[in-house]
Amino acid sequence: MNLALFDFDGTITHNDTFSLFLKFSLSRKTQILGGIRLAPYIAGYKFGWVTDRTIRTKLCQVGYIGYNADSLKHIGQEFANKVIPTCIRENALERILWHKQQGDQVVVVSASLGVYLESWCQSLNLDVICNQLEIHNGVLTGNFINGDCGYLEKVNRIKNKYDLTKYSTIYAYGDTPNDYPMLGLAHKKYYKWQEMH
Fold first, then answer.
1. Which domains are delineated in the chain?
2. Which end of the chain has fewer CB atoms surrounding its CB within 10 Å, N or C?
3. Contact (Cβ atoms closer than 8 angstroms) between residue 154 and residue 173
C-alpha cells in the first residue's frame, strides 16, 4: 500500500481557505477590531518578518476567543458544503481520486482548521491532520490544541499517526516552504504540481 500526503491550501485549493473562513465566520465588527489589534502582525507578515504560524495563531486567538463551539461547528459544515467546492483545483481532485482508486491511504495534512476541513475530508473519505481549536466548557479559547500544525509539526503528526515503514511508496504534494519537511518524507514529491527530483 502507498501513502499520499496532500497539503490543502494552495495545493488542493486555488486560494487560502483559512482567511476565507475567518471572513465567513467572524462578524464585521470582530474583523475590523481584530484587524486593528493585529495590524503590526499583519504588516510584519506581508514584509516577511512574521511567520504564517504566528499570524494563524494570533488571528485565531483574537477572532475565536469566547466563540460558541457548536455554532462554529455548524458554520464550518456550511463552509465545507458551500464554499470549499468552489475553491478546489480540478487536477488536485483527479489526483486524489486516482490515489483512492489505487487503494492508497490518502491524508490531507494542513494548518487549516478542522472545524471545516474535517467535514470536507469526510465527504471524500480522506484522513486529515490539521489545526484543532481548543474548547473549554463549550466555548473556544482561541488557542490550538498542541499548537500550530505547520512546518516540522506536520511531519511529527504524520509520524505519530502512521508507521511510514508500512508503505511501499510515499507521495507528497505541497506548494510553500511550509511543506518542505513533509515533502522530505516522500519517495515521490510534487511542489506546485511539478515533480521534484
1. 2-196 (3.40.50.1000)
2. C
3. no
